[in-house]
Design goal:
The complex is a heterodimer of chains A (about 260) and B (about 350). Chain A has ten helices and ten strands. Chain A has about 260 residues and is of the alpha/beta class. Chain A folds into two domains: about 170 residues, Rossmann fold (3-Layer(aba) Sandwich); about 80 residues, no CATH class. Chain A is globular and about 60 Å long. With about 350 residues, chain B is an all-alpha fold. Chain B is about 70% helix and about 0% strand. The longest helix of chain B has 28 residues. The chains are: A alpha/beta (about 260), B mainly alpha (about 350). At the A-B interface, helix 2, helix 3, helix 4 and helix 5 of A face helix 1, helix 7, helix 8 and helix 9 of B.
């Protein structure tokens, strides 16, 4: 992690509370994310980690709190706005477009940058054709980066789990995001696949300077690759800081890491 | 398909993103179109044109439209018949009310009107999906059935909504003989078919498919569900509307609202299911199948019955038709939801390796 410099706060979440009916998913959570850092969110199942990501990219709208992204104060995010502002994400239970090829899946990530109108597309002329080629080039760079050249034309439904996760990441990267939200990118992977994924995440962070917010259960991975960690439990924040600090926090230990006897 | 794409190395993205990337496909489609224009007219008689080919072409266009909506964007519709009716009656109104209106213009404007109506009836899709959306689109069907029977202005005050169009003239060509009708419909279908193929491989097609496959992920990536769904309704209704106008103007000549009843909506949906959801080619397969099967049964069942010494009445044949359709729908939904088109591509994949097992 040579060239990267952690900058100012890019995303600041203040006093976020989210409930579904009577169920409180998040209670008064505040934390910030700095530019170019790898920020991890950990916590037991049902702690509200995925809900937190859903709040950040506007799938859920919190009842209380404020989201400040790149200096703009917001009550909540809107999914489209979040995407336009450069927030991309991957999903815990892979949410790829199953009927489409790997290439088409990744091309959807370029959708916001494609401006030609429907008629030009139907005739496949002029700007529509130029755009397709231009964005194909960019997509190929991402395919090279993630080493998935051999499966470009394969329908994603036919791929093994590990590769699907990688395509999910590729699709998010195709947006050239400022902030990348990764929801358990390594769940269900074997050691080699985890190592590959860690390498890709660190490379993305290092080469593109992308800020990464990551949910992960593998403590080894989290402590190794993240700059700062926030810990949730039952929708409340119980710890926040650099990995060593979090590891030493007694509340975190009892809630999550487990006391050593 | 005893061919492989071996040896065709793409060196540019342009070559890789052609409409038919494999050379044999490209030539195959070109030859097929050329044969349809030049070869077919020498081979078939008037009955074939009128009873099989022209209905096949027009219904292909309609099922192509339905497939864009149901197969590509995943929004179910039971109102396709209504949009055909809107296309036909709107085209008719443009033709008789606007002076000097060319026939082709009236047909396209009919399609455009259907597109606008499609957008309106597509609005429920923003809130409901699946069965509920099917019911909402069914409302379109019943509304327009009613409107064309009861609102006299639409049908130029003709009793029972019966209207007729005569002396069709497209860019100086008289469209009256079966051959000229066939060529006209074929030209429209080729243009619309290629446009559909282009749309589904462009960004709009990817947006539709993304909404179909995983709408939350699509929204997160910056696709606007409203835009994607409503364009799908608009484009689909445009295709279906143009098909409706052709059905009225060219195939029937004079028609009443019953020509576009709810049966037609179901028929179009069956075509798409049997032919293959989410496949351009499937739309053609489905239309061919549904147009040809009744005629085939009409010829074949009495002969089969005679073999066993039974007399088979026409009523039995039409009952058999419905039974067979029903059975096929069930069969395809269970065994191969992607229809004939998927069977075709599986067959092609097997033949790539044939005669080797791996």
């Amino acid at each position: 992690m040579s060239g990267r410099k952690i900058g100012d706060v890019i995303l600041d979440l203040k006093n976020i509370s989210l409930s579904f009916g009577g169920v409180k998913a998040l209670t008064d959570i505040s934390f910030d994310v700095r530019e170019h850092e790898v920020r991890a969110i950990i916590g037991p199942n049902g702690a509200g980690k995925s809900s937190m990501l859903n709040v950040i990219n506007g799938v859920y709208h919190p009842q209380e709190g404020e989201i400040i992204f790149r200096g703009q104060h917001r009550r909540d995010m809107d999914t489209h706005e979040a995407a336009e502002q450069g927030i991309a994400r991957t999903f815990q239970n892979i949410a790829l477009f199953k009927g489409m090829s790997v290439l088409d899946n990744i091309m959807t990530g370029r959708n916001l940058r494609m401006k030609s109108n429907l008629f030009l597309q139907a005739l496949w002329i002029g700007p529509a054709q130029r755009e397709e080629l231009e964005h194909r080039k960019k997509v190929e760079e991402i395919i090279d980066f993630l080493e998935i050249q051999h499966i470009r034309k394969t329908p994603v439904g036919r791929l093994p789990y590990g590769l699907q996760k990688r395509v999910d990441l590729a699709r998010a990267l195709a947006m050239e995001p400022e902030v990348l939200l990764l929801d358990e990118p390594m769940a269900g992977m074997n050691v080699e696949e985890k190592q590959d994924m860690c390498r890709f995440i660190l490379d993305v962070n290092d080469q593109f300077g992308t800020t990464i917010v990551l949910i992960e259960h593998d403590m080894g991975v989290v402590m190794d690759i993240s700059d700062r960690v926030v810990v949730l439990d039952y929708g409340k924040k119980i710890g926040d800081g650099v990995p060593d600090e979090v590891r030493a926090n007694p509340e975190v230990i009892s809630a999550y890491l487990g006391a050593s006897h | 398909m005893l061919y492989r794409e071996n040896g065709q190395f793409k060196t540019t993205y342009q070559a890789d993103q052609q409409i038919f990337p494999i050379a044999q496909d490209r030539w195959g489609v070109l030859l097929l179109i050329a044969f349809a224009f030049v070869g077919v007219p020498f081979l078939v008689d008037e009955y074939m044109f009128r009873a099989i080919l022209i209905p096949f072409l027009i219904l292909s266009l309609a099922s192509l439209g339905v497939n864009l909506l149901v197969g590509y964007c995943g929004q179910i519709t039971l109102g396709a018949g209504a949009f055909m009716a809107v296309g036909a009656y709107a085209g008719y109104n443009f033709l008789i009310r606007v002076p000097e209106m060319p026939v082709l213009g009236a047909i396209l404007l009919g399609g455009a009107t259907a597109a606008a109506v499609g957008i309106v009836f597509g609005v429920p899709s923003l809130r409901v999906r699946g069965l509920y959306l099917a019911v909402a689109t069914l409302a379109a069907q019943f509304f327009w059935d009613w409107a064309f029977l009861r609102i006299k202005w639409f049908t130029n005050d003709s009793p029972s909504g019966n209207v007729s169009v005569s002396n069709l003239n497209v860019m100086g060509f008289e469209i009256s003989s079966p051959l000229s009708k066939y060529i006209f419909c074929l030209s429209v279908l080729v243009v619309f078919g290629l446009a559909a193929k282009n749309m589904v491989r462009a960004t709009i097609g990817r947006q539709w498919m993304a909404i179909r496959d995983m709408d939350v992920a699509a929204a997160v990536i910056g696709i606007r569900p409203m835009y994607a769904k409503l364009t799908a309704f608009a484009v689909s209704s445009f295709y279906v509307g143009v098909a409706g106008a052709l059905w009225g103007f060219v195939h029937l000549g004079s028609w009443e609202p019953a020509a576009f009843s709810v049966d037609r909506s179901f028929q179009l949906l069956f075509m798409v299911i049997i032919g293959g959801l989410g496949s351009i080619m499937g739309s053609f397969f489905g239309a061919a199948f549904i147009v040809i099967l009744p005629i085939f049964l009409n010829q074949f069942l009495p002969v089969l019955g005679a073999l066993f010494g039974m007399e088979i009445s026409t009523a039995t044949v039409s009952h058999a038709e419905i039974t067979i359709f029903g059975a096929l729908i069930v069969f395809f939904l269970i065994v191969e939801p992607h229809g004939l088109a998927r069977l075709w591509s599986t067959g092609k994949e097997k033949l790539r390796l044939w005669p080797f097992p791996h």
